[in-house]
């Protein structure tokens, strides 16, 4: 696999295999789960290769799981009996690192609930970050931002605003790396059609593909905002005699179950004043390209609509920040309170360290605004929480990275970041 591109999730998969009998690699369709799993496995088999192979897996799963370890079994959920076969084999062998499982759909809970506990770990993969797609200059380490409070960042070059727009529209799905905008539009439009027709739908609620596409467009128009489910349902024309807001919530939950839709939760922390936090999540797709595809936005249109571009750049940055934070055993949240103070991203690690980030296209005024928001948050947190603060950053679409001498805030170009 000479053309294989490094994935940040590789290390987590290796670490999980070193501690558990198997790992389930999950994530949205086409994010590269199978490619990475094959790269790490010693033997591999995909259940969708033939009808005969699938039938064999259903009646004799023990035959399927035999092979050099770690053995990768792709599309395992087509034969759910594979799960218990793997579990029993792990108990029998009493060894770690035996199997890697992956599939293009999230397995139902009745298959995997409890039975894999202590035996099968889970790793979630996202579309490729700018670092993974080799579009980062690798001048500012995300890890270093947490480890060195006296860090002075420096960098120059990287993507132009036009190139950022291309990365937003083409996206981070591995199959689209280095593809044209037109090729990406065709691929992503079909991707959205597929998840509307095939991946989504249960015995409880059958989704209407046309209305699902309407909901996807509504989410896209409200990307990176705290839009309520009621608002999304109304924009998607769900408020009629047959579909309720509650049904819209189920649609959203199903999109989340296949890892296409992500809710950026509000940050829970201790604030000095009595100001109340707002706890509504923000909406994001796993990749901003899905929003542009749903709305049919071209690069020419986006360059003329700076407000929408700002929201989509935030979505691009959040995609990358989530992957980087997860690699450091952390999560990303957003902050907003009733005074109107908002900070776009709070990356918090399991050890309690946290990094506050504002996301701006760039320009002196917007960077100054970002610094102001970060300093305001810094002044609101309790003394104990402030001690855990690793730093503050304004993530931009510019070409310069530096540490502001007056405030100590790092100004970081997104295309300079790496793990």
Word description of this protein:
With 419 residues, the chain is of the alpha/beta class. The protein folds into 2 domains: 9-125, P-loop containing nucleotide triphosphate hydrolases (Rossmann fold, 3-Layer(aba) Sandwich); 140-418, no CATH class. It is built from 17 helices and 16 strands. The chain has helices spanning 9-19, 33-40, 51-59, 61-64, 81-93, 109-112, 142-147, 161-170, 181-199, 209-221, 229-235, 245-257, 289-295, 299-304, 306-327, 364-380, 383-387, and strands spanning 22-27, 43-46, 71-74, 99-102, 120-125, 140-141, 154-156, 261-264, 282-285, 330-336, 342-349, 354-359, 389-396, 400-403, 410-413, 417-418. It has a 7-stranded mixed sheet, sandwiched between helices. Strands 2-3-4-1-5 form a 5-stranded parallel sheet, with helices on both faces. The protein has a two-stranded parallel sheet with strand order 6-16. The longest helix is centred in the C-terminal third of the chain and has 22 residues, at 306-327. The chain starts with 8 loop residues before the first helix and ends with a strand. The mean pLDDT is 91.
